[in-house]
Automatic annotation (TrEMBL):
<keyword id="KW-0808">Transferase</keyword>
<dbReference type="InterPro" id="IPR053318">
    <property type="entry name" value="GT64"/>
</dbReference>
<protein>
    <recommendedName>
        <fullName>Glycosyl transferase 64 domain-containing protein</fullName>
    </recommendedName>
</protein>
<dbReference type="GO" id="GO:0016020">
    <property type="term" value="C:membrane"/>
</dbReference>
<dbReference type="InterPro" id="IPR015338">
    <property type="entry name" value="GT64_dom"/>
</dbReference>
<keyword id="KW-1015">Disulfide bond</keyword>
<dbReference type="Pfam" id="PF09258">
    <property type="entry name" value="Glyco_transf_64"/>
</dbReference>
<feature type="signal peptide">
    <location>
        <begin position="1"/>
        <end position="25"/>
    </location>
</feature>
<dbReference type="InterPro" id="IPR029044">
    <property type="entry name" value="Nucleotide-diphossugar_trans"/>
</dbReference>
<feature type="domain" description="Glycosyl transferase 64">
    <location>
        <begin position="50"/>
        <end position="309"/>
    </location>
</feature>
<dbReference type="GO" id="GO:0016757">
    <property type="term" value="F:glycosyltransferase activity"/>
</dbReference>
<comment type="similarity">
    <text>Belongs to the glycosyltransferase 64 family.</text>
</comment>
<keyword id="KW-0732">Signal</keyword>
Length: 332
């Protein structure tokens, strides 16, 4: 009886904590979405870039600090903002970031927090990146240049393509890798992409997207898919896939040995990653998200793109550690 009572109390505490986090997250969104926090678009710099890095895992902090410092040193980067979304992390662990990096503790662990229109953003373009991915200088510069050439509302420029298709047998949308035969894709992952600052406000502040943001919170997944919905709705076009330089990806499951760089082992990095541990269920859930977003919005804005913008000939850009060597992740 006592154990049942304790279990009920634990469940109640967890429910109350989740409710409190949801309320605090909504309050944070409202604070960032207020008119007084909205920058004058005419003052946003078109020649520089702000980097938004998401962080949650304390095991990844050494790597996150190193990645943030590398971004801050890039000549095109005006500011680096780390959005830390683990409420239980003590302040003492969040010290020692480079001086050029702004650390913001989000009000909740919501994945929606990675798109908060932070008031320190003073550039027209923003690079959104995971805490285990780092492009070399050439890759980031090329992606920014590709975005500048488009410079239209809703343009997404990224390195990691994905696609969707209608599963007629099941009457639902399915999510999968980009179709290599057709070179067709409809989404780019927020592992690393460049977008316009206005998309952050649209994603975070649009009342029409409130129910879709709630799906992201419920599933702890699919915030990148929803951003692709928002961008396609704004632009009426598919995203832009680019290939340039190289990108070190510590979270790619094709890393096959421990990489002690930046204080984290390769196996530990893979264990934290969401897509690398979810297997088929992860892909299935993301298809469910597409189907649910379509239902909630009443339309399917995703559009297909074909081909990519290439800086130089080459294969896949992501770099993994294999048998003690740093090689392209698709290399056997």
């Amino acid at each position: 009886m006592a154990s049942h009572r304790r279990l009920r109390l634990l469940l109640l505490a967890a429910t109350l904590a989740a409710a409190a986090a949801a309320v605090s997250g909504v309050e944070e969104e409202e604070a960032f979405c207020g008119v007084e926090s909205m920058p004058d678009a005419a003052t946003l710099r078109p020649d520089r870039l702000t980097v938004l890095l998401s962080g949650y895992s304390e095991r990844r902090l050494p790597l996150l600090r190193a990645i943030a410092g590398a971004y801050a040193a890039h000549p095109l980067v005006l500011a680096v903002v780390v959005l830390w979304s683990n409420p239980s992390t003590p302040d003492s662990l969040l010290s020692s970031f480079p001086p050029a990096v702004t650390l913001h503790r989000t009000a909740s662990a919501s994945l929606n927090s990675r798109f908060l229109p932070h008031p320190s953003i003073r550039t027209a373009a923003v690079a959104v990146a995971d805490d285990d991915v780092l492009p070399d200088a050439a890759a980031l510069s090329f992606a920014f240049a590709a975005w500048q050439q488009r410079a239209r509302p809703g343009t997404l420029v990224g390195f990691f393509p994905r696609s969707h298709h209608l599963d007629l047998a099941r009457g639902r949308w399915a999510y999968g890798a980009a179709a290599r035969q057709q070179a067709r894709y409809s989404m780019v992952l927020t592992k690393l992409l460049v977008l316009g600052a206005g998309l952050l406000r649209e994603y975070s502040c649009s009342p029409e997207l409130a129910a879709a943001r709630a799906v992201v919170d419920r599933e702890r997944n699919c915030e990148d898919i929803l951003m692709n919905f928002v961008a396609a709705e704004e632009s009426g076009e598919g995203p832009v896939l680019v290939e340039a330089g190289s990108i070190r990806d510590w979270g790619d499951p094709r890393n096959d040995d421990a990489d002690a760089g930046a204080g984290a082992g390769g196996e530990e990095m893979k264990a934290v990653g969401l897509s690398s541990t979810g297997g088929a269920a992860h892909w299935e859930k993301r298809g469910d998200c597409i189907t649910e977003f379509h239902r909630l919005l009443g339309r399917m804005p995703l559009r297909y793109s074909y081909g990519k913008v290439v800086a130089a000939a080459g294969g896949e850009q992501a770099l993994c550690s294999k048998r003690g060597r740093l090689v392209r992740c698709d290399q056997e």
